[in-house]
Each structure stands twice: as C-alpha cells, then as structure tokens.
Amino acid sequence: MQELAAPEAPAQLPPELRRQWTEFLTRPTVAGHFDPQSVAALPEPARRWLRFAIAPGTELRRCVELELHGRIRLGRWRSFRARQVLVGGCGYIWAERTRLFGLPLSGYDRLTAGHGEMRHAIAGRIPVVSATGADITHSAAGRLVAEMLLVPAAALDPGIRWSAVDEDTVTVTVPFLRHHYELTLCVAPDGEPRAAALRRWAQVGGAGFGEHRFVVQVDQPRTFDGFTIPTRVRAGYADNADGHLDPFIEQFVDDATFH
Predict the structure, then answer these.
(1) pLDDT > 90? residue 201
(2) Which InterPro entries is this protein grouped with (predicted)?
C-alpha cells in the first residue's frame, strides 16, 4: 500500500499536539497481514466480528485518521465537525469545531503520552472546558478502549483477553495505564458490531468522579483500506435501572484513512 504524506494537523491544536498528531500518523503501527485463521481460537462473537471487520490480507494498521461530523449535547444539541487521529492501545486526539451562544467554539480532547486532557474555548480565548489530571486520564482511557471498534487491528493485541458471554456477546479485557478495562461487545450473526459497553470513570450529572456504565451504539458499516468500521456512533451513559441510553454525542465517519 502506498504511503501518503501526513495531512496537516488541525489548526486549533497547540504546537506540541500538532507535532503529536503528525507523530501518530507517521509512527509505524503495522503488525503483519490479517489471516482469518489467526482468530480461530477466539470466542465465536469475537471471531465473527474480526472476520467481518478485517478483510483477508489487510495490513494490520493500528492508526486511523477520521473525518467526522455529528451533534453534541451542550445544554442543547449542537452540530459539530471534527477530525480525530486514533492509535489503538496508545492514544488519540479529537479536535472539534462547533458554535455556542452564536460564537465559534473549538478545542480538543486528547490522550497522549499517558495523559488525558480536555480544552475547549469560545473564539479560542474564553475557556468552556479546561481539565486534566488523573481522573481525566482514567476517563480518556475508557474512551480509547471503547473506540477499539474504529481500529479493529488493536483487538489482535496479544495482551488482551477474551471471554464469551453468550453466542452474540463477548467481553474483552484490556490492560492500559495500570488498569484493566472490561469492554462487552454485542455482535450480530453476520459479524457486524451492534453495541459496546464498559464501566467508565466519569463525572456525570454534576456529581464527583465515579464509575458509570458507558454505552456505545453503532451501525452503518463502511469499508476503508480493508477495514469495515461503523460510521454512525451514539454514546452516553446508562446508569438507570432499565439500562436506557442517555446519549450526549452522535457522530458520523465521513472518511477514514488507516496508517
């Protein structure tokens, strides 16, 4: 596969994160080519998903650059556009642009070098969200694990463990930054992923940080560079008794390039 020059990082990122963006895109992440027989020993739902998600012979690239649009709930639902670079098992940078009170709002969420951060400001000057520290890093790590669905080769890391729940559900345990994250994945009979859930460290409803059931619902798969990933993602928390999802974001993948 011909290597393309790394595109310019989003302008709203500070210089050190623009450098990190480029490093993510140019860091070698290929771990051979996909052989469907290599997942034969995994539980059935995991095997179905990976054979659905990765075409035979595809280079196992663990970095993807995403062009996104969608809506996010900031008081009310607001449209946004975003770009993201995501490296499975390592980190991500998500850079967005939207409007708040009729003014441009931009910023980023990131997990780089083992540290999480959220910075979003109106007109680049008035902070709306500004957070970092151990709690933010722990929460960002949960997001990274849930976004495995967008970079399927990361699921082949030998350090993760699979456990079958039933014929359509499997749990994957992912070690990352001194924690173990258990992601439950629901898979359709044809291998298409339907939803994923984990206990994520987060601040919900104005309370302090704690563990909450984080749910991701996915559909509308498309194939990019040999990987079939969901292009519609709804995510939020579902702590209520009936497990009803209360989404705070819905985003669509417009394009994906694997590196």
Answers:
(1) yes
(2) DUF6544
pTM: 0.94
Residue 227 located in a structural domain:
yes
Distance CA 216, CA 239 (A): 13
Query: Within a domain: residue 169?
Result: yes
Angle at the Cα of 17 from the Cα atoms of 230 and 54, rounded to 5 degrees: 25
pLDDT tens digits, one per residue of 73-91:
988 999 999 999 999 999 9
Look-up: residue for tokens 């052989």? 35
Q: Which of 186, 228, 196 is nearest to 51 (CA)?
A: 228
Name residue 183's beta-bridge partners: 172
Minimum mean pLDDT range among 61-65, 99-103, 169-173, 225-229: 99-103
- Copy the structure tokens of residue 181: 């994250």
Domain count, the chain: 1
Helix (H, G, I), strand (E, B) or coil at 137: helix
The CATH number of residue 45's host domain is 2.50.20
Give the end-to-end CA distance of the chain in Å, rounded to a whole number: 10
Residue 1, domain member (yes or no): no
Tokens 């009310």, residue located: 76
Domain region containing 19 = 15-258
CA angle 201, 202, 205 (to 5 degrees): 145
CA 195/CA 192 separation, integer angstroms: 10
Q: Would you say 221 and 228 are in contact if contact means Cβ atoms under 8 Å apart?
A: yes
Q: Residues near 108 by Cβ (< 8 Å), separated by ≥ 6?
A: 10, 12, 13, 17, 93, 94, 95, 96, 117, 118, 119, 120
Cβ–Cβ under 8 Å, residues 135 and 211: no
